[in-house]
Design brief:
Helix content: 25-40%
Strand content: 15-25%
Shape: globular
Number of helices: 14
Distance between the termini: 51 Å
Bound molecules: zinc ion
Largest sheet: 8 strands, parallel
Oligomer: single chain
Length: 472
């Protein structure tokens, strides 16, 4: 029997997809999954015997590579940049079993969408360890940028993020949002919304600073959950008026979840994601003594702990369809420190691209999520939501061989001393995790195995995405 060096057999594992776990061997030929086989059958034994490489997955899960639909590598914010480049950030993602990211190109005020897309390709192309796509942030609604939305869709960028927060920076008025949503409705593009009432929040921030309340906790207290709920409802109303599909990013509050659930019950094309930080961290972390709370400043802010149960329930009921990281790392030293003495100057963002799959696995361990639901919210639904299925998000013949062999019994302690993200702290420092990505394949290449990184910058390819695949 001659072996074929371009083939990999993954044997003895439990293949977990959104449909549930099955025992199967997986054959990879070149960059794609070729077939799944019943272990021990004569046919399967034949191709396993001829494979160039055999990965023993006994006792482990075999998952589709995870997809993080919300990252900000090298993102400019408040006079500084997110500390992970596309190279360091995608490498860290790979360590944690994420094999695709969808990052955000940013239209600057006065700039064009085409220029933004070019700028983000220049940052990412040739530097990524894993495959990547882009969403587009519209921060300047003009006749030209509205027209350019169609060009973006043709270029594989099929989702557009707008902000009801950050007046003077990314903020769009309700009228501007309406115009962009009308355009999105015509083209089928997904509108992604940062839903917080930034106009009211800015007043609360100014009042806090004027009263001498400058510590990081004030970031949370000046952005109350009600103002996320209100903005989420307003975004849903505007989407209903225009017929545009809507995706609420980084939903953190029970009030916002209630709005999404009601809209979905009404049959509206409204979807939402949450992030691991809202499932595991809380306002208590923002209240840590001294300036340490700055590590946990992101928007929307971490909420009081009692929101967490609602979010886990939302994940089970599918009112929350996706978990993304909103990975936007800023080092504590020199970057977060820009806000010493003025919480409003703390760069907004929490690092997390490396640990989403692990943190969600804790939800499986704790009985919050089934195995199938874990894979669905981390891998399969993001693929469908962002027009990548069935190339990504599933282990099936013809899919890209983005595969994670996950050891559910491994133990690890999250720490800045051991993580691979280019940031000097971990939001989860000291947290004990059960489970770890053991072997990671990206398009048929083994990029993580034996505790070592075998990938390379530039292996990752740009993904031209189709429209959202959930629209009814
Ligand atoms: Zn974000």
């Amino acid at each position: 029997m001659t072996s074929d060096p371009s083939t990999i057999a993954i044997t003895g594992g439990t293949v977990v997809t959104a449909a549930g776990p099955v025992t199967a061997d997986v054959l990879v030929i070149g960059e794609q999954v070729a077939t799944l086989g019943q272990p021990g059958s004569a046919l399967t034994a034949d191709w396993v015997g001829r494979a160039g490489q055999v990965i023993d997955a006994t006792g482990k899960y075999v998952l589709p590579g995870a997809i993080d639909g919300h990252t900000h590598m090298e993102m400019p914010f408040g006079g500084t940049h997110a500390s992970d480049t596309f190279e360091t950030g995608t490498r860290a993602a790979a360590w944690g079993g994420t094999t695709t990211i969808v990052d955000f190109a940013v239209q600057p005020k006065g700039g064009s969408l085409a220029g933004a897309l070019d700028a983000w390709h220049a940052k990412a192309d040739g530097h990524c360890a894993i495959d990547y796509g882009f969403h587009m942030i519209i921060s300047d609604v003009t006749d030209t940028s509205l027209k350019e939305m169609a060009m973006c869709i043709d270029a594989g960028v099929t989702s557009f993020k707008m902000f009801m927060a950050y007046p003077g920076v990314f903020y769009a008025t309700d009228g501007e949002i309406l115009l962009a949503m009308q355009q999105a409705a015509r083209t089928g593009a997904l509108t992604m919304m940062h839903a917080e009432n930034g106009i009211a929040i800015d007043r609360l921030v100014a009042q806090a600073l004027a009263a001498g309340r400058t510590e990081p906790l004030q970031h949370g207290l000046t952005r109350p959950a009600e103002l996320e709920g209100e903005a989420t409802g307003r975004a849903i109303t505007l989407a209903g008026v225009t017929g545009a599909p809507l995706y609420i990013v980084h939903l953190s509050a029970a009030e916002a979840l209630a709005q999404v659930a009601a809209a979905r019950d009404d049959g509206q094309n409204v979807f939402a994601e949450t992030c691991p930080q809202y499932l595991y961290l809380s306002l208590d972390d923002l209240a840590r003594p001294g300036f340490e709370g700055a590590k946990f400043v992101a928007s929307p802010p971490l909420r009081p702990k009692d929101h967490q149960d609602s979010l886990w329930r939302g994940l089970r009921t599918n009112d929350l369809s996706v978990v993304s990281t909103d990975h936007c790392p800023f080092c504590f030293k020199d970057q977060k420190e820009l806000g010493r003495g003025d919480f409003s100057k703390i760069p907004n963002g929490i690092p997390g691209v490396e640990h989403r799959l692990d943190l969600l696995h804790q939800g499986v361990v704790a009985g919050e999520l089934s195995l199938a639901r874990w894979v669905e919210v981390a891998c399969t639904t993001p693929a469908r939501m962002f027009g990548l299925y069935p190339r990504k998000g599933v282990i099936a013949p013809g899919a890209d061989a983005d595969i994670v062999v996950y050891d559910p019994d491994a133990r690890q302690v999250l720490s800045a001393a051991t993580h691979h993200m280019n940031v000097d702290y971990s939001a989860y420092e000291g947290m004990e995790i059960t489970g770890r990505a053991d072997t990671v394949l990206s398009r048929g290449q083994v990029i993580i195995s034996g505790g070592e990184y075998h990938g390379r910058a530039g292996h990752g390819q740009f993904l031209s995405r189709e429209l959202c695949q959930y629209l009814s």
